[in-house]
Amino acid sequence: MSVHCFTYGTLMCPEIMSAVSGRALGGEPATLLGYSRHAVRDQDYPGIKPVAGARVQGVLYRNLDTLALRRLDAFEGEQYQRATIEVILPDGHRVSADTYVIKPEHASILLPGEWDFDSFLAVGKARFQSRYPGFSRI
Domain spanning 3-117: which superfamily? Predict the structure, then answer.
């Protein structure tokens, strides 16, 4: 069994996704409608929650196997739940994929405003990688 996975935060970085999933994966741009992305309090990574009319730009990785999904589930932890959603590719095609949504009971950890990927790359990525040095050993 293989599943596509939509990522919208730290896992948009191919080297982080490869370290976490245990696979070298190539991604492609995709858009998720009906969700908004927010920074998680005191962290460099975001979470998403359902919001009518919102959209999240991210990266779609195709054909993850069961082991890669288990590693991702462990990495995402208890605050997130894996959900099957639909994303839109730049050519307009729609693709079913799994993604990690913040559980409703943890929504209070999301900060107002949009999480910024460019700021993460400039400032937060190195800090994130230093905080989570063991994620490649999941």
Answer: Gamma-glutamyl cyclotransferase-like (3.10.490.10)
